[in-house]
Design goal:
It is built from 15 helices and 16 strands. By secondary structure, it is of the alpha/beta class. It has two domains: 4-68 and 367-409, Urease, subunit C, domain 1 (Roll); 70-359, Alpha-Beta Barrel (TIM Barrel). Strand 15 and strand 16 (405-409) form a beta hairpin. The radius of gyration is 21 Å and the shape is globular.
Length: 416
């Protein structure tokens, strides 16, 4: 039977409740947090800790920062190979679109991914998740999209299902991204690929319960707004929530479509229009910032300040993938959101916790530290959020707990 535990002597506890402005951390100074099994029992000032909880096993935070477990709400977790050669090509002046049109980009990763077995993909993803947990990540949205045929797309999603059934790594939220690009074998039969996605893949994915969301890359090299509408409406009819890669390389109506469909999130948005901002503000769609992709592609980042000022909730994620964002370092993405996008440290933390949880349909379960929610929390070697994101280090996370289970504990850490 699970025993209650208490983390005491917390210098700052950022509860990150969903309500209020994004800059509100609902922080508690000199706090304590109690949990039993996988659920939070109590949070509040340590002086108010109930008498029965004063008698249970206590851990000592030693005056450090405690925050909700980080939620990476946009990753392409399972893929084959890497694309380091494109890193050099971009340094020499080649653009993302030029590389893609020359046969690189997503198409090259599709070839490498199709060649990998389910077991090899599973082992690789476990390694990535282990490293993410060390950084304080407790929940990961994971997209397919590097198969683009029936067998490989299903293989990727089944890998995510297997990971979701395992303990000792972050929680997994799977997303079907069969509409990443049109695969080479359908290049001259575009409408046939759309029919395949809508009439065959989406129904099978939904019937097998392999994904919670359906995503579409809306871009000149991928899918048009009418095509995306058809795919996402088919997903909705099958019970899958809507997500979009939108306005990354040009303003093309992706954000407006996200607003029209009341999508859970519209991600990238580096070139979002004023109409796009108004559309997602009216719909309640979360705008997910991916500053690592902006950094690697040398693009102006999403105008987060404009979106926040318009009342849009802004998430922060890594976009971890082998081409445009080959890093799963979510705390680095949070620091970049502050330095490149004028988000405050508090807004960036909310963006990677409660707002990110909302972007993947987990607002009532993850991303906040309140009684009844999952016991997902991190201990950070910093006195507060400002100092954590300002003094960037390889890793300031000392302890990661997901569902009450310790996923990571820094060598030599003494809290118990």
């Amino acid at each position: 039977m699970a025993m209650a535990r208490v983390l005491r002597n917390i210098g700052m506890l950022a509860t990150c409740r969903p309500e209020g402005e994004q800059a509100e951390l609902h922080a508690i100074a000199q706090a304590a947090l109690a949990w039993e099994g996988g659920t939070i029992l109590w949070v509040g000032p340590e002086e108010s800790l109930p008498a029965d909880l004063r008698r249970v096993e206590a851990w000592d935070a030693r005056g450090r920062l405690v925050a909700p477990g980080l939620v990476d709400c946009h990753t392409h977790l399972a893929f084959g190979g890497w694309r380091a050669e494109e890193f050099e090509q971009r340094a020499r002046g080649a653009s993302y679109l030029e590389i893609a049109k020359a046969g690189g980009g997503i198409a090259s990763t599709v070839t490498a991914t199709r060649a990998m077995s389910e077991e090899d993909l599973l082992l690789r993803c476990r390694g990535f998740l282990r490293e993410m947990a060390r950084l304080g990540v407790t929940t990961v949205e994971a997209k397919s999209g590097y198969g683009l045929d029936r067998d490989t797309e299903l293989r990727l999603l089944r890998v995510y299902r297997r990971l979701g059934a395992e303990a000792h790594h972050p929680h997994i939220v799977p997303t079907f991204l069969g509409a990443h690009v049109v695969p080479p074998e359908y290049r001259d039969r575009r409408s046939a690929y759309l029919d395949f996605l809508v009439t065959e893949m989406i129904p099978q994915v939904a019937t097998e319960g392999l994904a919670r969301f359906c995503d579409v890359f809306v871009e000149d090299t991928a899918f048009t707004v009418p095509e995306a509408r058809r795919i996402l409406e088919a997903g909705a009819a099958a019970g899958l929530g809507a997500k979009l890669h939108a306005d990354q390389l040009a303003s093309n109506g992706g954000a407006e479509l996200a607003g029209e469909l009341q999508a859970a999130s519209a991600d990238h948005l580096e070139h979002i229009s004023d109409d796009g901002i108004a559309a997602i503000a009216a719909s309640g769609t979360v705008a997910v910032s991916l500053p690592l992709a902006s950094l690697y592609l040398r693009q102006p980042p999403m105008p987060a300040r404009r979106l926040l000022d318009a009342g849009v909730a802004v998430g922060v994620a890594t976009d971890f993938n082998p081409g445009s964002a080959p890093s799963y370092h979510l705390p680095l993405a949070m620091t970049l959101a502050v330095t490149m996008q004028r988000m405050t440290p508090a807004e960036a933390l909310r963006g990677a916790t409660s707002v990110a949880a909302r972007a993947i349909g987990l607002e009532g379960e993850a991303g906040s530290l309140t009684a009844g929610r999952a016991a997902d929390f991190v201990l950070i070697d910093a006195p507060d959020v400002n100092h954590w994101l300002y003094h960037f280090r390889p890793n300031a996370c000392l302890l990661t707990v997901a569902g009450g289970t310790v996923l990571w504990e820094a060598p030599g850490l003494s809290v118990r």
